[in-house]
Amino acid sequence: MLDPADDTRVTLLHRLNKDPNDQHSWAEFVSMYSPVIRGWCLHWGLQDSDAHDVGQNVLLRLTQKLPQFQYDATRSFRAWLKTLTHHAWHDFVTETGYRNRGSGDSKVLEQLQSVAAKEDLAARVEATFDRELLEVALARARERVAEHTWAAFRMTALENVPPQEAADALGVRISSVYLSKHRVQKLVQEEIKQLEGGNADGE
Question: Greatest CA span in the chain, whole angstroms?
Answer without folding.
Answer: 66
